[in-house]
Design brief:
By secondary structure, this protein is of the alpha+beta class. The protein has a single domain, classed as Alpha-Beta Plaits (2-Layer Sandwich). It is built from four helices and six strands; from the N terminus they run βααββαββαβ. Strands 1, 2, 3, 4, 5 and 6 form a six-stranded mixed beta sheet that branches. A hairpin with a 2-residue loop joins β4 and β5. α1 runs antiparallel to α2. The N and C termini lie far apart (46 Å).
Amino acid sequence: MGENGREAPVPGPIAAAPGGPPGSRRLCCAMFADLVGYSSLMEENEAQTLDAVTAIHGAIVRPSLDRHGGRLIRTMGDGFLAEFIAASSAVACGIDIQRAMAARDTPPPLAFRIGINLGEITESGADIYGREVNVAARLETLSDPEGILPCRRGLPSRCCPSPT
């Protein structure tokens, strides 16, 4: 119970928080995901692939982000960038997404690669930028199909370079 005798509000996903002023910095966990083989599938059957990507975002990605307090920053055709307050939430969301994708039995066969990185980002309105977002994107490219690759500061410098 809160001080006024009512139930204390439960913190919601960060989607409820507006973006900060240009150039503001804060800690977050960035998740970058991309579909494996998207370009080839688009060449084979563009309409089917676009329908599948739309369905995946509606039935898998967005609900998983909502369940784990994530905020979808932007989509990029076959990929997306999301942010979380906690790394554990980002990893749990990634696991949810990968399990749901593995359970899909609708063509075409699609799989995400996911990279996750925790660090200080730069905000501009509803978007996020900076080294930590770039690292999440690099990790995604190093992830196995159907995999999740979180950054650990002990990885080689090509993955998670030390801030200078």
